[in-house]
Amino acid sequence: MKISEKTDVRKNLLKTRKSLNKAFIEYHSNHIIVQILEDPNFINSNNIGIYLPVNNELDLTRLLSLKGKTFYVPKTVDDEIIFVEITKETPLIKGPYQIDEPASGEVAEKIDYLITPSLAIYQNRRLGYGGGYYDKYISKNRPTFVVGVIYDFQEVEFKYDDLDELLDYYFVSKKEI
């Protein structure tokens, strides 16, 4: 079996994700949220890194309403990301890639549990959009747990390299609507 190049996988999966409807995204997002809420590592973590969804990514923002946890989202600074505290009241601005991010806020010193968006996952390696932002962050500031989340069609073989950081594990939404 031929293993696909990253650029081909990105192109195909972005096209597939673009075709998803709101009900499908909501259903699968809720399925992933249940898995996360049952994860002992999440339960025992305080500082949670999460993302704000774009391009029909799984939407986990309902987690932000949980009490007893501090949530952080990526903010682009130069050619890297930092994680900045977010609450339901945090004012958001469009970052360099037109992704919502906090206008300002407290920067995380340490993330206990980082939930990463992914275009694909293969052998616990995540494939992102190609900028290496998450890989650089994980390499420099390895959270206690790095967890991917994907739809079932995103479990795809691709050629990865040493710069692609390993996930500790990942959750897949496989339930049919």
- How is the CATH topology named? Rossmann fold
* Rg, nearest Å: 15 Å
β-strand percent reads 25-35%
The pLDDT mean sits at 94
Summarize the structure.
The protein has 177 residues and is of the alpha/beta class. Helices cover 23% and strands 27% of the residues. The protein has one domain: 3-Layer(aba) Sandwich (Rossmann fold), CATH 3.40.50.10420.
Summarize the helices and strands and which ones pair or pack.
Elements: H1 6-18, H2 22-37, H3 40-43, E1 47-49, E2 70-77, E3 80-86, E4 92-94, E5 100-102, E6 113-117, E7 120-122, E8 125-127, H4 133-140, E9 145-151, E10 169-173
Parallel strand pairs: 1-2, 1-6, 6-9, 9-10
Antiparallel strand pairs: 2-3, 4-5, 7-8
Describe the overall structure.
The protein is an alpha/beta fold. The chain has a single domain (6-173), classed as NagB/RpiA/CoA transferase-like (Rossmann fold). The protein is 23% helix and 27% strand. The chain has four helices and ten strands. It has helices at 6-18, 22-37, 40-43, 133-140, and strands spanning 47-49, 70-77, 80-86, 92-94, 100-102, 113-117, 120-122, 125-127, 145-151, 169-173. The strands form three sheets. It has a six-stranded mixed beta sheet with strand order 3-2-1-6-9-10, with helices on both faces. A two-stranded antiparallel sheet has the order 4-5. The radius of gyration is 15 Å and the shape is globular. The two termini are 30 Å apart. The relative contact order is 0.20.
